[in-house]
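Title: [Solved] Glycosyl hydrolase 3D structure

Original question kept below for reference.
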Amino acid sequence: MPGVVEGAEPGPGGGVVRFARSTLRVRVTTGGAVFCGWDGAEPEPSYALDGPCPEADERAELEPDTGGGWRVVSERVTVVVSRDGTVEVRTPGGVVLRRDLPPRWWEPAGAPGPAERGVRGEGARWLQRSEVAADARFFGLGGRASGPRLRDGEYRLWNTDPGGSFEPGDDPLYLTMPVQLVVADAGTHLVFHDNSWDGAVTLREGEEGAGSGHDRPGWCRTRMEGGPLRYWVIVGTPARVLHGWAALTGAPAVPPRWALGHHHARWGFGGAEEVRRVVAGYRERGLPLSALHLDIDHYAGHRVFTVDPERFPDLPGLAAELLEDGVRLVSIVDPAVKAEPGNAVYDSGAAEDVFVRDARGREVRGVVWPGESVFPDFTDPRVRKWWGGLYAERLAQGFSGVWHDMNEPVSFAAFGETTLPRSARHALEGRGGDHREAHNVYALAMARAGYEGLCELRPNERPFLFSRSGWAGLQRYGGSWSGDVATGWAGLRASLALVLGLGLSGVPYSGPDIGGFTGSPSPELYLRWFQLGAYLPLFRTHSAISAGRREPWEFGPRVLEHAAAALRTRQRLLPYFTTLAQLAARTGAPYVRPVWWRTPKDRALRDCEDAFLLGDALLVAPVLEEGVRRRPVRLPRGRWYDTVTGRAYDGPGQVVLDAPLSGIPVLARAGSVVPVAGPDGGVELEVWTPCQGRRGAGAGMLAVEAGDGWEKPELLRFVTRLRDGVVTVEREGGGAVGYPVRVRGEAPPREGRPSRRTG
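Solution (posted by the thread starter after getting help):
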């Protein structure tokens, strides 16, 4: 425990509060984010931050508070530190959003001597318990199969390959983050414990009116096995919080436009001829396909950065051939390098001394797909530079993008667990340390190496990269996917939970293995998974080598017909997805958002987990259970139109909608402008009839990209109104709309039959 307060020293954006056995630094930045660091912990160095720590808010000052404590008051947030070390984060109006109780530390057995005052050893363990409002709900913590709302329980913070496949309830998974989003009536806040060591977060929801009529607050307990006790808190609306998070940890990378189309992948393509057959199958049936992914079986002996010459005798030629049909090749890349003299990657790495070593200076060796393997130390800038240069081989083979796998990292020969020994040594940017600290950021640093390498090799193109594992800040380099989700209805539900949870943790581009990684989905399950995937950022089928096929025509003519419709819908929505990608880069808002995104005080919406918003305009209600042909849909406030029938529904409330095998319910917000691909291939604006009057005005945006380079696109904003039965569409700032407009949606009789007029 910190002990009793003894004094304080003002500093930029706050200052340092001194206790009998500890110190606490509080700093409010210009963007309103709050940093708290105990025992000398500073914001840097950090793998999460995008560059140096944001500047302090010079208007935020440390001043005495009642009861012998201290407080920092700023425009967006107030921080109150009590005399015993309790830290309260309050709204500008004084409502407490979060109460962090005094932390506790202890040195593990065998640690050298007691810690001096204000200084903790790197292996000092700590625990912090926090209280939140009784009505609060928890989200985030990276990719979690149970959710997106996180129920009572313990969630481990250790990136882990669960082995085989996973379902809801399996935890931890590949991509954990100490990032919580807490939503309550009083407000929303995000808390990020900037500590990459092994740990756990235990959550308990509160209860209103518990006991004798008093609320029982919710609480969370964060426990870490070492490292600093430092954390950030960002408060505001959900949109403002995610914007602040992106400003702190980096803007999400914008995928090239083709990466927003449909991807087909499989572990087990027999060779070039099978790839040609699959692509031809899509082409002959008129099914859009943007990319095809090659898994580890295209390598020579599973060795990374190689090609099996028998299966793929002319891979560059195959890539060029597919590109003529508009299909790109994407390559898997694993971090493990076969420890074999004569293997060019191993020989190069050994000469450069890039592999992780143990405390005695020997290469750490594990067993992965190619056999006995070594592991690059991506926490060393020199190693990242070396590794990034290796992607030249992938580009020369004709690949247009990469997906990182097995990078938790995984070793089948377990050192007590299926990863590297905790004693393995890492550079950690020159500070030095071991795998206890490096494990969770290993994949993040690998993603950085790949991204920066691709940028250097092809400076005029945005890279396409997504990673199975990662940590806070992964969005700077790319996205993620579900990993080996089990085939089954439970796996389908877990897929949606993962995408929503990752988006609320700052990673907006992700998606599942459609059909599940393992097993053979029934035609109905495959179709429902496919229909969900059509509305998710990464739209990819994928399966294990032992699993059933995933081509849409393998499930019969009825499934093929409905899957083809889903593919056409995705193609039609590509201008909208492109716009969402650009908005994510500018605002941090995920493409896929919980239904409470704009109305977080709606408690019924906070508990809704079977639907989502795609941007601001569309509400998607997938079918997640077998045999369902009608399903209830919880509506946020406002008017919503069924995109099939055009019928209007008013929220908040619940409606029951048809969900035939031909498609899942999708509703459009009244007044929204959705950019879509027109029949001639150009962009048209689909306008959903606004409500009458000024309060019914709607809006929408279109990102006009020049290509897949780095030039910032023009963002056009449109506003819509309904007056006297006439829908008007205007370009904000003046000027012609410039695109064909199609008005949709039935206006209720009292508003008259809508007609169209563009400004």
